[in-house]
Amino acid sequence: MDLEDTAARLGVPVEDVERVHRLAGDRPSAPLPAKADAPAILDRLGVRPDDAAEIMAGWPDADSPLWTPELRWLLDRSIALVRADLGGHGWLVPGPALPRERGLAWRHLYGYAYLALVGVVRAYHRDHGIADTVSWVTLADLGRNLAVDRRMRGEGWPVMQSWLTLHVRGGLYELGRLQHQRGDAGTIDLHIPDAGPLTPEAVEASLDEAREFFPRHFPDERYTAFACGSWLLDPQLREYLPEDSNIVRFQRRFELEPYEEPDGLDGDVEVLRFVFRTLTTPLDQLPRGTVLQRAVVDHLKAGRHWQWRRGRFPIPPRSTV
Ligand SMILES: CC(C)(COP(=O)(O)OP(=O)(O)OC[C@H]1O[C@@H](n2cnc3c(N)ncnc32)[C@H](O)[C@@H]1OP(=O)(O)O)[C@@H](O)C(=O)NCCC(=O)NCCS
């Protein structure tokens, strides 16, 4: 197989194709579900009707003209690449960021990979005794991300395609309000899905659930702290938000690590991503409907910057997991 030619046809750097080739090797892929079953599965995965319709229309049928040999190769090897790390819980790039405007196969390739991996991770969940409800709620983050992708007109997808590999490798679980990512060094990493207000009660209930969940389902792993990396932990937000806002109350749980200059994650970009769901709209055209939206724009217009911060807090000793 000619990797240079494949890269050229895919419109991506050859190094990205070499990486897929290297990591996937000839490891096993996994089949997509039967097309007839797909609508019901997409529904369980929280995929909205407009996204589901696109996914069905671009389905990689054996005779589909939308699927060139290079796209079929990438789909198959990307599934193998992610599957090879089943049980892993680090961020994983499943393959090159594609020129998604070229068509439905290009647009949803990593979505089809996710569908193929649902069967694989469902078996992994069963092996770990994880309830069906937790399994499906966790996997339904696909639908939420596709809806955000639509809102963001594709701008956010390169991050999402890596993010969604956590779910299908068994690295992350949605327990109530928060998503909990298994981590190294005894740390559970918390993520906050876009799913309504972040009330202290909902956060507490989710943390309680995690304290039970991890020792039961991953008895060989020992967790002593919750951690989080987020724009939500930027202490500058307190200059603008009331003390009783959910974000400020969430912040109070954490002991912050010292601020480091961004090494990849730019606070300004992440704030725009999560508060406005756009990375390119000029500041003057952004909505000013909430106190946070006004704060974000005024802060940036003043020449200041937002910070991506990490913090942690111990899991109380009596219930150390
Ligand atoms: C985290 C989140 C649930 C907090 O929302 P919340 O519980 O309403 O937070 P607060 O009570 O602190 O809100 C304070 C103010 O900021 C506004 N606000 C909070 N998050 C907002 C957001 N993402 N976009 C716009 N406004 C927001 C609220 O509407 C409120 O303003 P108002 O009084 O004028 O209505 C919300 O920001 C969200 O859904 N974010 C997307 C997911 C995310 O950022 N995850 C973390 C990724 S690292």
From TrEMBL:
Organism: Micromonospora chaiyaphumensis
InterPro entries assigned: GNAT_C (IPR041644), NAT_N (IPR041273)
Lineage: Bacteria, Bacillati, Actinomycetota, Actinomycetes, Micromonosporales
Sequence ranges assigned to domain N-acyltransferase N-terminal in this UniProt record: 37-170
Top-rank taxon: Bacteria
Pfam families: GNAT_C, NAT_N
Protein name (database record): DUF5596 domain-containing protein
Domain GNAT-like C-terminal span(s) in chain numbering: 172-313
